[in-house]
Amino acid sequence: MKKVGRNEPCPCGSGKKYKNCHASQEKTKELSNKSLLYIGLLLAFLAIAAYSLFTSQKSTRPNGPAPEGKVWSEEHGHYH
Q1: Comparing C-alpha atoms, which of 13, 32, 34, 36 is closest to residue 24?
Q2: pLDDT by 10-residue block (mean), the chain, 80 residues
Q3: DSSP for 25-77?
Q4: How far apart are the first and last CA of the chain?
Q5: Dist. CA 5–CA 44, nearest whole Å
């Protein structure tokens, strides 16, 4: 399909120039598609960052004796 020039008549048949009729709608559609792409990429990045942050936080048992009456929980990474 041939691209319509800005100053050519709009193909919808309104008699207006394309730039004054449907050009702004096409521009909005293009911006909307780009925005959705950027939002999707941002969400993917945040999901990967959150996953790597939460999976890499392994607490190591502190050196020395446990406080009196406490036991180390490997699952939680702290004394109970």
Answers
A1: 32
A2: 78 86 77 84 93 74 85 84
A3: HHHHHHHHHHHHHHHHHHHHHHHHHHHHHHHS-PPPPPSSPPPTT--EETTTT
A4: 70
A5: 37
